[in-house]
Amino acid sequence: MANASNALSSPQMQALVSYLEHDTHPTIVLDIDYNIVAANTAYQRQFGVEGRPHVGAKCYRVSHQFAVPCDQAGEHCPMRKASETKVPERVLHIHHTPRGPEHVDVELRPILDAQGEVFAYVERLNSVAVASVQPQQSGLVGRSAAFNEALTALQRAAPSQIPVLLQGESGTGKELFARALHAASPRAGGPLVVVDCTGLTETLLESELFGYEKGAFTGALQRKIGLAESAHGGTLFLDEIGEVPLAMQVKLLRLIESGSFRPVGSLRTVHSDFRLVAAKHKPLKEMVAAGTFRQDLFYRISAFPIRLPSLRERNEDLPLLIESLLRRLAPGAAPRVDDDAMKLLRLYPFPGNIRELRNIMERARLFTDDGVIRAQDLPP
Fold first, then answer.
1. C-alpha dihedral sign at 30, 36, 37, 40
2. Whether the Cβ atoms of residue 252 and residue 259 lie closer than 8 Å to each other
3. pTM to 2 decimals?
């Protein structure tokens, strides 16, 4: 402990603390006993509470209101692992903040002494703006382990240009995740263009995606810009990509690989710079084996797969989702669900996932006259 104390008061550590003061990200320095020994201005501004200084407090008490370290309270503790591996760790946690609980992306780096032993840690915290732990009028909400796992993957993929494949049952919120991925990316200032591939023939999909020239076919009375060109500088989201006709898949592959295409009826080549996000609920691997989906296209779109959990896997999120959906369905006058109705909803498997839950809530609120949804207001 004496060595650790000396190291914390060393000129090198003082220089580190001074350097972190200029970091625009909220950052703290921790000793090996979980004590916060320094916090920069950005941290105090975003996570500080007036009259309650965090320096000197235990990190798990400040961030989680736990009486014991995270790993002893059922959470993943990056400090425990970093002390063993001596390499940086990153984890998504739900932190208590002055604004209430929030998703926070935590990056923790161990600081080694001259003997190669860990004597302190630098922890950088970034609030996740694209998802909420509290009821919201829009966007992603959730706090369950299954939801956080998907959100962690999204946070990892968002800053890069890697193609992302969202996988999950129908109704799990794939478009919401695509919008969150776009919002968290460097392309957030550009457009998000959604292409629903369901039920489109090869000809119709090609004209929608690539656009067409005037006179390219009967009814083409003027030139039309395609959705791929509209996505320039942003994100192109191909929803239900498993529905793309086989003959169209080779043209789609060329678009994804080169960013180039020809509008229908044109000799000119158009280039579009976009980030690709695709979604599917069909088993693409089985479709590849059956010859109904191109293997090269499958490998091109699935560089970074993210599995979205079903509602059955995130039962813990049910009250949060219900309150958020009711706020969205009835802004300013959202009803509440009583305990008996909530017990019934928790027992239901929701084969249609969040989409089905939304339909159930929309129906139930029409049956309540006093702002309380009861068991008899739910469908049989």
1. positive
2. no
3. 0.90
